């Protein structure tokens, strides 16, 4: 069951990461949002997902509130259900509660979610509870387009534990002249 959940986690995450990088094909009729780009080649394509039968399996995801990442998560969960027959339960959590919503069950030895969304600064605390990202996905053609800095914030001590799904980074920039000469 753990292997299935790891594979499902990789597939859902990869669908979210790589869905914009695609080419037109037969799936754009069933999933109109990809009309301009189409399916992606490889293990995480709609074509490959449609060959998998996860009927009777349930995947539980804790993600951000809508709209943020919660909206695309819900969209991809629906697509995954249509393609594979799996049931996907999505819990939308406000950003300020994402850490504790996962960490409290982690520390209690519980696993209410198969996929958890969080921020890169959670990785040190969460890493002992997460499986490393499979090398197969780290070495995929699509992942080669992810910048080294985004790969870095998804990793700890050289091991990637999180999929780099969203590239938001927050920076403080200021005018030096205003600070130096108030």
Q: What this model shows, in words?
A:
The protein is built from nine helices and five strands. With 182 residues, it is α/β, with parallel strands linked by helices. Strand 1, helix 4 and strand 2 form a beta-alpha-beta unit. The chain is globular, with a radius of gyration of 18 Å.
Order of helices and strands: HHHEHEHEHHHEEH
Rg from Cα: 18 Å
Number of helices: 9
Mean pLDDT: 82
In one word, what is the shape? globular
Q: Biggest β-sheet: count, sense, barrel?
A: 3 strands, parallel
What key phrases describe this protein's structure?
two-stranded antiparallel sheet; 9 helices; alpha/beta; 182 residues; D-Maltodextrin-Binding Protein, domain 2; 5 strands
In short:
This protein is α/β, with parallel strands linked by helices and 182 residues long. The protein contains 9 helices and 5 strands; from the N terminus they run H-H-H-E-H-E-H-E-H-H-H-E-E-H. The longest helix has 17 residues, at 2-18.
């Amino acid at each position: 069951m753990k292997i299935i959940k790891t594979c499902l986690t990789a597939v859902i995450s990869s669908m979210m990461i790589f869905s914009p990088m695609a080419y037109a094909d037969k799936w754009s009729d069933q999933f109109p949002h990809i009309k301009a780009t189409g399916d992606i080649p490889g293990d995480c394509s709609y074509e490959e997902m449609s060959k998998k039968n996860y009927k009777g399996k349930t995947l539980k995801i804790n993600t951000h509130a809508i709209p943020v990442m919660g909206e695309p998560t819900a969209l991809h969960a629906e697509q995954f259900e249509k393609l594979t027959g799996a049931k996907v339960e999505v819990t939308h959590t406000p950003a300020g509660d994402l850490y504790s919503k996962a960490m409290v069950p982690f520390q209690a030895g519980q696993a209410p979610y198969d996929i958890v969304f969080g921020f890169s600064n959670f990785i040190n605390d969460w890493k002992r509870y997460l499986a490393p990202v499979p090398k197969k996905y780290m070495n995929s053609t699509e992942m080669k387009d992810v910048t080294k800095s985004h790969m870095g914030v998804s990793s700890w001590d050289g091991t990637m534990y999180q999929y780099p799904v969203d590239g938001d980074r927050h920076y403080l920039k200021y005018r030096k002249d205003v600070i130096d000469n108030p």
